[in-house]
Structure formats: structure tokens, C-alpha cells
Amino acid sequence: YSDAGSGFAGDETMFHAIEDSIKHNVDVVSVSSGFTGTGLVGEKYWQAIRALRKAGIPMVVATGNYATSASSSSWDLVANNHLK
């Protein structure tokens, strides 16, 4: 899936792309994202990530692409706690 428009995609576009990835049984999902604020995403994102995991599709994410906006938490710790 590609949103070839402005180079930016909102939450709903991301969720639809993840759903389409599962439907089309892709090999991998690669995302480059940047969030303002803490860098932590909401439960809807975790549900989408868990659905990919359940389908056996790995997701590779480059985060922190929004200038100086970053979480002070270790991303690995945050991700591991949510994906258990």
C-alpha cells in the first residue's frame, strides 16, 4: 500500500493500510512515522500491530521523524510492555 499523495498520512490511512496488508498477506510492513508529543501511540495502533503479529506479518518502523519530538522512554521497553 502506498499513499502517493503529499507524503503524509493520517491515522485512518495508516489503519486502512494495515488492514489491507493483512488482507493481501504481504511479507512485511514498513512504516516511517513521526508523532508529536510523547511519541507513544494509542490503543488503536496497538490493536493494529497485534493484528499484524497474529497474521505473522512483521512490521518495521522508523520513529521519531518529527523534528525534536521524542519520547524520553526507551522505545524497546514501551513496545515490549504493550505487545505482551
Question: Can you tell me about this structure?
Answer:
The structure is a single chain. The chain has helices spanning 11-23, 43-54, 75-83, and strands spanning 29-32, 59-62. It is mostly helical. It has one domain (11-83): UDP-galactose 4-epimerase, domain 1, CATH 3.90.25. The chain is globular and about 30 Å long. Residues 7-73 form the Peptidase S8/S53 domain.
Instruction: Please report the total strand number as a whole number.
Output: 2
Which structural category do the helix and sheet elements fall into? Answer: mainly alpha
Discrete helix count: 3
Question: What is the 3D form?
Answer: globular
Number of domains: 1
What is the helical fraction, as a range of percent? Answer: 40-55%
The CATH architecture can be named as: Alpha-Beta Complex
Binned strand content: 5-15%
Q: What is the class in the CATH system?
A: Alpha Beta
CATH topology: UDP-galactose 4-epimerase, domain 1
Oligomer: single chain
Q: Regions with pLDDT < 50 over 5+ consecutive residues?
A: none
Radius of gyration: 13 Å
**Major beta sheet, specifics?**
2 strands, parallel
How far apart are the termini? 27 Å
Based on the model shown, name its key terms.
Peptidase_S8/S53_dom_sf, mainly alpha, two-stranded parallel ribbon, Peptidase_S8/S53_dom, about 80 residues, globular
What can be said about this structure in brief?
With 84 residues, the chain is mostly helical.
Please write out the topology.
Elements: H1 11-23, E1 29-32, H2 43-54, E2 59-62, H3 75-83
Helix pairs in contact: 1-2
